[in-house]
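Side project, low priority. Logging it here so it doesn't get lost.
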Amino acid sequence: MNPVSSYSSANLIVATAVNRNLNSMLGALQRLSTGQRINRGSDDPAALIAANMIKSQIATREALQRSTLRVSGLVAVADSGLAEVSRLTSEIRGNLLTAASSTTTDAERAALQLEIDGAIDAIDRVGESTYNGSLVFSGKTVNVSYRPDYYAWDRLHLPEINSETLGDEAAVLADLRSGGQYDLESGDLASALQTLDAVQSRTIYARAEYRVFDRYSHDSIYESLYDQEIQLTSIYSEIMDADYGSETSELTRSAILAHSSLVAYKSLVAVAQTQASLFDALFDLNRR
């Protein structure tokens, strides 16, 4: 066998082993430093595609959870406003019943009417409540989307709170104001109470609707989104995260092999140098 050819082949094999082991060691170091098993597309293209899809799904659910929190704030503001309307209508009812007593003087009725007017004004102010720059009690039905399926909508009705619209077909809350057809001076207590009953019934129904929506739509979907995010995050972690135990073992193994390859390469270089010296000596002898 030609010694030069043999040396060249051995040199190529050892150099390849050195490069392979050094690259393996550097790869393990990179995975340990970043904590990720996949740091570039060539590491695992299929897994990287799957991880990116899962990451997109996680981001979607995080955005939907933030949306549910905004909806929760809207429901809380609306429920608080309706609770205040219920309290004010109860005060109006008490004033109506007090005014109906034969022992109540005209001056007291006038004072009670002022209180009724003030309560109605307060109800109108509740109707002007806003959330995130929008009117809460707009009388409209809003579409609330917080599901992964963007075409799935939950509808939340926002009743209009206004003394000119609250009431029944016969009368509205504004008719109980001073000068209205059912104020205390009119003496028509039955009609005033009937109008007030309609307002309270509407308020109670709206509060019940909000509570049902908050409990069975909002809360359940929020918990579902949270659970899905945890599961997807776990799957993403399994795909992307490096196993520190195995990577540490790989680093140690690669370092040992790289060191052995370098020692072999140095030995091969030393042998080559010895052979070259022998060839030079033989050449000198032949020339003499």
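Brief comment: The CA atoms of residues 74 and 131 lie 6 Å apart.
Revisit when time allows.
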